[in-house]
Amino acid sequence: MQRFGLGAVVALVSASVGLGATAASADGRLEARYRLSLGGLELGRAAFLIEVDDKAYVASGSARLTGVVQAVSSGKGAAGARGAIDRGTLQPRSFAMEAESDRKNEAIRLVMSGAAVTDMTVEPPVMPAADRVPVTEKDKKNIFDPMTATLIMVPGTESPLSPKACGRTLSIFDGRQRYDLDLIFDRMEDVKAEKGYAGPSVVCRVAYRPVSGHKPDRKSVKYMMNNKDMYVWLAPVAGTRMLVPFRASVATLLGVAQMEALSFITEPTVGRKAAASTTGQ
To answer: Which has more confidence, 24 or 153?
Structure first.
């Protein structure tokens, strides 16, 4: 359940992709730190870094267990993605994720071109199962990786902090599963980090729809498909038309899983390029 709780959120957050922005993205940078909790109990901390200009973007993140949970189980992970920006649209080129826990280590690498996966490595590999919906080649096309799916490009010339940030479907492939996250506008709400951003956010309700790679009869899958209590709060990256998650919450069978920014420091970087080139990706 935690995989479908915080995991689905981190896919926003593993969750809002660039769907046809009509203006240049400009230049901006975000460095954020988050608290992860379940039922009010801290589970871990996460960090997120984005650098973007009108040609390319680089995003990276890391997370680790903390507090009481760390005393009974260890765990940490890191992920990153990079890609190009063409006419205001995100075009992912590569995604990598590594996670370590007491029970197993996991690594996923995707190479993409034209919104389709052209090469991938998944360790440990997904084992065939009669009750699992198989992932087809079609399921690896017209998709975004989980990290790119945390970046929302809002079209138009008006403020990106508007209902337009929602009203879209995120088609995501994480190397093991293909699923859709539908974003529906709920409200505008002010947010405030302990350090950095304080101001308006766009709140979207989220609906989860599995496509392939999942086991339909699992209780957790059925629960998340019917879950009406999933939300993401989107805040702006300065100097751009990009929004990213400031907060996210998911009701689970174990309580409410939440991710909230403790620090959200963002600034325009006009004239600078993204931290790394996408050449050769």
So the answer is: 153
